[in-house]
TrEMBL record:
Residue ranges of the region described as Disordered: 24-54, 332-354
Organism: Gracilibacillus kekensis
Keywords: Signal
Family matches, as PANTHER family: ABC TRANSPORTER, SUBSTRATE-BINDING LIPOPROTEIN, ABC TRANSPORTER, SUBSTRATE-BINDING LIPOPROTEIN-RELATED
Keyword Signal: yes
InterPro entries per the UniProt record, alphabetical: ABC_transpt-TYRBP-like, Peripla_BP_I
Residues of the signal peptide: 1-19
Compositional bias (Acidic residues): 34-54
Pfam families per the UniProt record, alphabetical: ABC_sub_bind (PF04392)
Official protein name in the record: Putative ABC transport system substrate-binding protein
PROSITE patterns from the UniProt entry: PROKAR_LIPOPROTEIN
Length: 354
């Protein structure tokens, strides 16, 4: 009995010891597991907080009907405004090479890529973008008449996903015609333009309207592409006393061809914007394309940050215009200089050849 009782006591305490060890192991394992999971969870939360605090990089599709200095300056101004606002953006820049079909393809690709915003630099580019999407915000510039171009119903009624800044001051064509009537009285104005550009058609109509009641008349020649510019311009020699090259993308991209004819024939050549003056035009009542691009970029910032929608931002016109004259071009084109131009005009130096 004593031996049995001793055996029972030994067995009982052995069970207690084993049970205590097992509980200790379980607690240790549980604590270890809990600590690991807690660490992982904290790390995940920290990573999430870091990702949330990282500045967003906006994807912007930039579509341009073709490349020439005025449109390029507008795009540079747009990007500068985005950067000045402290936003990070990646740009997918696409030139349509003056082909409307290319412009449509570019816009559709931007939609497929689900970009955050489309910057449409020219009327054809804006029209293509608007045809491609009714959801992605579109900010345009280098557009002469947004209403006539079918982009918006009215200047103060922008679209649900489109608005922007025009490249034509409301008084610039009238002022240019007045200038011609004052200093080249009785002249026939030679107009070369692409009839396929809504921008250009609207401007030509405005020129003809402004000519009514003056001593002036107009003669027109149309082109379909840049290769036709020389022939179209030459066809006006003998009829035109003055050339007026509006902001037609096709003709402006081949402007040096027109400049050569103007200089050879001593025909004063007025143009639609300052960059064309620097490239050999005689004079313009123009605006700064970098400025309108910058303002368009400021609008884009408001849209990207959610401060406003395109529907909240009316279409704007350039804030001001100025008479620009290229004195060297005036001499080359046989223009008699008038002293009042020294005070009234900003004299531009010819652009340096690259």
């Amino acid at each position: 009995m004593k031996k049995l009782l001793l055996l029972f006591v030994i067995t009982f305490f052995s069970v207690l010891v084993l049970a205590a060890c097992g509980t200790s192991d379980e607690n240790e394992g549980t604590n270890g597991s809990s600590d690991d999971e807690g660490t992982e969870e904290t790390t995940d939360e920290t990573n999430g907080e870091e990702e949330a605090s990282t500045d967003e990089v906006y994807q912007i599709g930039a579509t341009q009907i073709l490349e020439h200095p005025s449109l390029d300056a507008a795009f540079e101004g747009f990007k500068e405004a985005i950067a000045d606002a402290g936003l990070e953006a990646e740009y997918d820049f696409q030139s349509a090479q003056n082909d409307q079909n290319n412009a449509s393809t570019i816009a559709n690709n931007f939609v497929a890529d689900d970009v955050d915003l489309i910057f449409a630099n020219s009327t054809p580019s804006a029209q293509s973008a608007l045809n491609a999407t009714s959801d992605i915000p579109i900010l345009f510039t280098s557009v002469t008449d947004a209403v006539e171009g079918g982009l918006v119903e009215a200047m103060d009624q922008p679209g649900e996903n489109i608005t922007g800044v025009l490249d034509m001051h409301p008084d610039s064509i009238a002022k240019t015609v007045e200038f011609i009537d004052t200093y080249f009285e009785g002249s026939t104005i030679g107009l070369v333009y692409n009839a396929g550009e809504a921008n250009s058609v609207a401007q030509i109509e405005a020129v003809n309207a402004a000519v009514e009641g003056t001593s002036l008349s107009t003669a027109e020649a149309t082109v379909g592409n840049t290769s036709e510019v020389q022939q179209a311009t030459t066809s006006l020699v003998g009829e035109a006393d003055v050339f007026y090259i509006i902001t037609d993308n096709t003709v402006v991209s081949a402007l040096e061809t027109v400049v050569a004819i103007a200089e050879e024939q001593d025909i004063p050549m007025l143009v639609g914007e300052p960059d064309s003056v620097a490239r050999g035009g005689f004079a313009t009542f123009g605006i700064d394309y970098h400025t309108i691009g910058y303002r368009t970029g400021e609008m884009a910032v408001e849209v990207l940050t959610g401060e406003k929608t395109t529907a909240d931002i009316p279409v704007e016109v350039p804030p001001s215009m100025q008479l620009f004259i290229n004195e060297e071009a005036a001499e080359e084109q046989g223009v008699e200089w008038h002293e009042d131009w020294d005070e009234d005009a900003e004299l531009l130096e010819p652009a340096e050849e690259e």
